[in-house]
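Batch job 17 of 40 flagged for manual review because the log was empty.
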Amino acid sequence: MSKRSLQARSESWPIRGSFRISRGAKTTAEVIVVEITQDGVTGRGECVPYARYGESIRSVLGQITAVRDYIADGLTRDGLLTIMPSGAARNAVDCALWDLEAKQTGKSIAAIARIPAPGPVITAYTLSLDSPEKMGDAAKAARHRPLFKLKLGGEGDLERVAAVRANAPQTRLIVDANEAWTPDMMRDYCPKMADFGVELIEQPLPAGEDAILGEMERPVPICADESAHDTATLDAVTELYDFINIKLDKTGGLTEALLLAEAARGFGLGVMVGCMLGTSLGMAPAMYLSPFARFVDLDGPLLLEKDRENGITFDGSIMHPPKAELWG
């Protein structure tokens, strides 16, 4: 076989309207696509650099370019774990290697990984942070969807959830504070979230300031996001959280994500599989975690003006496994 070649590029995908969380808003999804080619066969991976973790388009492209020679010389996915840190750059490279192997061998990702193949699954549908009135209107317009994920921001969150619940009384709810709550808010909000029927509260307190969770009652299960990235960070959250949100852009790819899902279950933690805001190319690898997850939040393509060619098929909030033309 010939040597492999690696190419990387950035892409910008317009969001339908805007996407707002407690840290700010954006109108485009900025992604990086990696392509690894060998003997005329190309594997692809997508990642989303995230400023919260000190990443930018420029820094992530630099990390990817730095491993080009290693990839050319046949670096494996396991080897990649030893030379790149967890994060967006490794995610795109790792997923491109998975895709390349699947296309070269004609085997499915599930067969290669020796895991169950994903089937159709319900994804959460995200409502961006806004005023209670606007979030209520958004909930009414999408009340046919079975599961919402509400982006919250601190003050006024009870009113936001109340407005959503009033306008979508049958829709299941999970909420994500993106580190915006204080301990006093936790004590006040959690029992009331239970009254609203909220099934999961994601990352209420800032990462590094969440030790107090171990002393608090939990009428609603609490999920770690910013506090947990990969297997190296798992020990720190096992006594504080009930669930862990596994995102490939945090773990640094599907290889580490599968290890993390297995380790989390060993600690008795529930699994949520989540995503950054990207296209179907970024969602496809994450779908292979769905057989291990209680909650799936892979609605990125639903929030874009358009998705890439051969994207994942969505029937409402039901997402179907990716076609081989997309990934895997």
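Reviewer: the log was empty due to a logging misconfiguration, but the result itself is present. The radius of gyration is 19 Å. Unflagging and moving on to job 18.
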